[in-house]
Amino acid sequence: MSENANKKKRGHAIALFSGGLDSALAILLMLKQDIEVTALTFMTHFGCDLGDRSSCGTDPYPASEKFGFNVKLMHLGQKFVDIVESPKFGRGGHMNVCIDCRILMLNEAKACMEMTNADFIITGEVLGQRPFSQQKDKMHLVLRETGLKGKLLRPLSAKLLRATEPELSGMVDREMLESINGRSRKRQMELATEHGLEDYPNPGGGCLLTDEGYSNRLKDLLAHSDRLSFEDLNLLRVGRHFRLDPATKVVVGRNEKENNLLMGYRRDHHCLLEAPDIGSPLTLLIGNTSEGNIEKAAMITARYTSARLEPKVCVVSTRVSDDRVTELTVTPARDEDLKLVAVR
Ligand code: SF4
User: Fold this and answer.
1) Does the CB atom of residue 101 touch ligand 1 within 6 A?
2) Which of 38, 133, 292, 298 is the most exposed place for a label (fewest CB within 10 A)?
C-alpha cells in the first residue's frame, strides 16, 4: 500500500492476527471504517508450523493480500518458553497459559504500536467464547497488566464493553462494531459472507499446549529438566515417548516421516535403535545409555516392528558418538509393561 494511500486513512490499528475467522473479521471491521491495519502473526514453539501446509498453521498472507493489510510474522521464542515454564496467571485445562500468552502478545503489539505511532490495538476476542481467557474479568486483568486501557479495541464484542479511545474520539464508529457474546459462531458466519471472507479455517482449539498428549509430554519434560531447550520442546512433537528413569527417555517414530525427523534429532550422547530387515520404527535412546537401558529400548522398539508377535526380535543399537553397534535379540515389550513407562 502506498504512503499516500495511508495518509487518507482515519487511523492506524495494530491487530493480533492468528489467521482464524475472528481475528480476520476484527480486521475487516476496521478496514471497512477506513482504518489502516498492521497485523501481527505470532509464532511460538507450541504452535502450528506456518511453513508446513499439512499442519494446522494458517497462512496469513492470502487474506492480507485479498483485503489489503500488512502482516508481520513475529517469533516469541524464549519469551514464550519463559511463561510456559512459570506462568504468572496459571494454566487452563492443560498446559495452556492463555492469560500470560495474551499479555505477552499484547505487550509486543503495544511496543509495535508505539514504534509505528499507531493509534490503538485490536483483537478478534469474543466475550465469553473461551472459558479461561475471554471472560470479562480476565479481559480487565489483561488490560491492567498491559496498561492498554482505552487502547485495546475488541471489534466483535465492542458494544458490550466500555468504549475505547478511538471510539470516544470518533476515529472509529462504535455503531458499526459488533456485540457478539458466547460460543455460537452464527454472527461470525454472517459477517464472513457479508465481507466476502470465504476461505477460513475451522475454529481451532488453540495451540499444542491445549492438547492432552502434548501437555503430558511437556509436564514430564518439565519434571525432569532444569530448563526447557528449544530442541527438547521440538522433540515433544515427534513420536511415542517413554520415560525409563529421571535421566532417560525413549522416543519411537510412528511413521517414516517421524523416523526421518528423529534422525535429525540424534546427538552424540544418544543411541539409535532399529530392527533390520523388517518393518521397524527408528528409536532414539536419550540420557543414560547403559546396557540395561539399551535392552529396554530394544524391547520397546521390537514391540512396534512388524514382528511384534514373534517371541524374539533382533534389534541393532548404534551409539551415535562412535558408531559402536550392539546387536540384541529381545522379547517385544508387552503392552501392560509399556503402560508403566509411556508418557501420554
Ligand atoms: S491456546 Fe495457546 S496460543 Fe492460544 S491463547 Fe492459549 S496459550 Fe496462547
Assistant:
1) yes
2) 292
pLDDT of residue 278: 97
Of 184-188, 205-209, 316-320, the least confident:
205-209
The alpha carbon of 219 and the centre of ligand 1 are apart by a number of angstroms equal to 17
Burial class for 201, CB neighbours closer than 10 Å (0-12, 13-18, 19+): middle
Return the residue whose CA atom lies nearest to atom 2 of ligand 1.
207
Supply the pLDDT for residue 136: 79
312 CB-near residues (< 8 Å, 6+ apart): 329, 330, 331
SS3 239: coil
| Domain spans, the chain | 3-208, 238-343
In percent, how much of the chain has pLDDT > 90? 83
The finding on whether 157 has its CB within 6 A of some atom of ligand 1 is no
Q: Is 206 in the pocket of ligand 1 (CB under 6 A)?
A: yes
Out of 58, 89, 141, 207, mutate this one to test ligand 1's pocket (max ligand atoms within 8 Å of CB): namely 207
Give the pLDDT score at 244.
98
Homologous superfamily of 3-208 in CATH? HUPs (3.40.50.620)
pLDDT given for residue 62 in this prediction: 87
Nearest of 146, 152, 148 to residue 123 by alpha carbon: 152
Distance (Å, whole) CA 183 – CA 214? 25
98 ligand 1 Cβ < 6 A:
yes
Our answer on whether the CB atom of 104 is closer than 6 Å to any ligand 1 atom is: no
Residue 262 beta carbon below 6 angstroms from any ligand 1 atom: no
Q: Name the grid cell of 62.
A: 492470502
